[in-house]
Design a protein that fits this description.
The chain is built from twelve helices and eight strands. By secondary structure, the chain is α/β, with parallel strands linked by helices.
């Protein structure tokens, strides 16, 4: 009897493995044609150094890494960048940061707790988890460490939620708010949720490239993640920059925290809705969203725009859950217009 059970179990496992391989081949998108060549060149040459000044801030006993980049001439103000779910500060592309610095702004980017060189909360639990408000205080700690009284805050995805919490609870520290591809309440039953197929594909991508953690596989996992977050939209991903960022993390930082997704998802759940607070927001705000975003559906961006008084909007047809080079000029121009109108 035990022999039959063991034989059946082995057969089931083999079927699941074969099914998984077939699913990966059929469902997961291909990487760009020149990805292998570019990855090989980046690994051979190594990633370039960071351009700014690095440092640490402390929110109580939580250590937060940041990088500050100054313009070469006159200083017009400070922009604080807050990244999204499970991604560290290096996920902000250089082609997005450079125009902001060249426009005269100090640009500060930070690793959210649980990512990069910030603390990973090894003693975290579901019963003792942090919130978006705690993560907003991390951002305050960075501003304090740099002696910055107020800044123009830009957050993407989860970072947009943190930026909203920062604007709500510490409005005196926020000159303008830009919320990109984000939500005021991801659990709103009246709005669409993340596409289940995307969650499945991201899991399968981790099985494809995340089990054997070579430099090549980790870079390919980052590239495949960006391909999936494009959704059905058609534009090219900057393979070289994505590869350089991933390789820098592998060689010079701590890499990726496998627990960050669960920890930061719990922060979203624990923090609840910001709808009522957003209705009272008086800070100049810009809402940016891709119409075909597969991760945070477009309706969430629409809802934020409808709630926040006098908010501006930028809807982009053809944009996924990403900041590709194709739309960077459009996005940067609208952000700078908001900032320059409210210096």
């Amino acid at each position: 009897m035990k022999g039959k059970i063991l034989k059946t179990s082995v057969i089931v496992i083999i079927i699941l493995i074969i099914s998984g391989i077939i699913y990966m081949k059929i469902s997961l998108p291909d990487l760009p044609d020149d990805a292998d060549r570019i990855i090989t060149e980046v690994i051979k040459s190594g990633p370039p150094p960071l351009k700014g000044k690095e440092g640490y801030a402390y929110n109580g006993n939580v250590k937060i890494w940041y990088e500050s980049r100054m313009p070469s001439d006159s200083l017009r103000g400070t922009i604080l960048l807050i990244m999204g779910m499970s991604n560290d500060a290096l996920s902000w592309p250089e082609y997005f940061i450079d125009p902001l610095v060249e426009s005269g702004y100090q640009v500060v980017r930070m690793d959210n707790r649980g990512t990069g060189l910030s603390d990973w909360d090894g003693d975290w639990s579901l019963f003792d988890s942090y919130t978006l408000e705690d993560m907003a205080l991390d951002a305050i700690a960075v501003l304090d460490a740099l002696k910055i009284e107020t800044s123009h805050v830009i957050g993407i995805s989860l970072g947009g939620m943190i930026a909203q919490a920062l604007a709500i609870h510490h409005p005196e520290r926020v000159s303008t708010l830009t919320s990109i591809m984000s939500s005021g309440y991801m659990m709103d039953d009246e709005l669409p949720a993340t596409k289940p197929i995307l969650v499945t594909d991201l899991f399968m991508a981790n099985l494809r490239y995340g089990l054997i953690k070579s430099e090549t596989n980790i870079i390919k996992l980052h590239l495949l993640g960006r391909e999936l977050l494009k959704g059905d939209n058609e534009y090219d991903i900057n393979v070289e920059e994505t590869a350089q960022s991933a390789l820098y993390n592998i060689r010079n930082r701590k890499g990726d925290n496998p627990l960050s997704f669960q920890q930061q998802t719990q922060a979203i759940l624990k923090s609840g809705s910001r709808y009522e607070d957003l209705r009272q927001l008086k800070i100049p705000t810009l809402i940016i969203h891709g119409i075909h975003d597969p991760m945070v559906p477009f309706e969430h961006g629409e809802k934020c725009y409808e709630l926040i008084p006098n908010a501006r909007k930028l809807w982009i047809d053809g944009l996924g859950h990403d900041i590709p080079e194709l739309y960077t000029d459009t996005i940067s121009s609208e952000i700078l217009r908001l900032i320059q109108d409210h210096p």
